[in-house]
UniProtKB/TrEMBL annotation:
The keyword Methyltransferase applies. Keywords: Methyltransferase, Transferase. InterPro entries: Methyltransf_25 (IPR041698), SAM-dependent_MTases_sf (IPR029063). It comes from Actinoplanes flavus. Pfam families: Methyltransf_25. GO terms for molecular function: methyltransferase activity. Residues 60-150 form the Methyltransferase domain. This is Class I SAM-dependent methyltransferase. Gene3D superfamilies: Vaccinia Virus protein VP39.
Length: 274
């Protein structure tokens, strides 16, 4: 396998400042409004329930908007990401927002080696799993981080969404990318990102993997966790299919034409048995 970590880290280092400065992440709102939460966390707030007092870790936290939001809900948060540039932005955000969060640089698979103790909550947000070659290894890492009774909470892009042909203009939904996990990555060279920015990117190549819903759920179960919730959604928190989606408000977008055709995202919850 190629050195996907170095290739992807260079890409995310390149994105960090552009994302922090983009109006889509609304970073300044965290300093201006002490009650402000990221769109992703606000979407799942009822599903999250009361997280006050929980020791939590946000894997693949990027610039920390969801991490700060969970902290504002009362969780004692740690953020982990492999991009040093992203963590620089995350620390600046936490400082401006008045949030006490420990940010640690590490690859997800090495999280158990760099994090102390066990956690009541392991949180993963949108657009994380596609950067990992093995969902089984991810689930085993999550289980190793959880305290007995602790829970996993993840909202992610649906693997059907990741498998679509994004360039079609005829309104049809066409599955052209792998749905199931493959040994070799899907290699893309794209000089843009998913938010509004004028930044000119220099590291444009990424290596990514899709993971089927069955593979994800099986990995969680085989890691010894008990599935406690699974819900598929008909919206996604970015304009995933440009020109074919409508803005629902609150940061959510939906396929304009017959949206019930497409599972956009999902929320999965699981617990580690006591």
């Amino acid at each position: 396998m190629t050195d996907y970590l170095s290739i992807n880290r260079a890409n995310w280092d390149d994105r960090a400042t552009a994302h922090a400065n983009s109006p889509d992440y609304r970073v300044a709102r965290f300093a201006e409004d002490p009650a402000h939460l990221s769109d992703v966390v606000r979407f799942d707030r009822q599903r999250l329930g009361d997280v006050a007092g929980l020791r939590g870790v946000h894997l693949q936290c990027h610039i920390g908007t969801d991490t700060v939001s969970l902290s504002r809900l009362g969780a004692d948060m740690t953020g982990l990401d492999f991009s040093g540039a992203s963590l620089t932005e995350a620390r600046a955000l936490a400082l401006a927002a008045g949030a006490k969060i420990n940010f640690i640089q590490s690859d997800v698979y090495a999280a158990r080696d760099v994090l102390d103790g066990e956690f009541d909550l392991v949180y993963t947000g949108i657009g994380a799993l596609c950067w990992l070659p093995s969902v089984n290894r991810w689930a085993q890492t999550v289980a190793s981080l959880l305290a007995p009774g602790g829970r996993l909470f993840i909202r992610e892009g649906h693997p059907v969404l990741w498998a679509l042909d994004y360039d079609r203009t005829d309104g049809l939904l066409s599955l052209t990318e792998p749905y199931f996990e493959q040994e070799q990555p899907q290699v893309y060279d794209e000089p843009f990102t998913y938010v509004a920015t004028d930044h000119v990117f220099t590291h444009t190549v990424t290596h990514e993997w899709n993971h089927g819903i069955g593979e994800i759920i099986t990995a969680v179960l085989e890691a010894g966790l008990t599935l406690t919730g699974f819900e598929e959604h008909q919206s996604v928190p970015w304009n995933a299919l440009n020109g074919r989606m409508r803005d629902l408000g609150d940061g959510e977008w939906q396929l304009t034409d017959r949206p019930a055709r497409l599972p956009h995202t999902y929320t999965l919850q699981a617990r580690k048995p006591v």
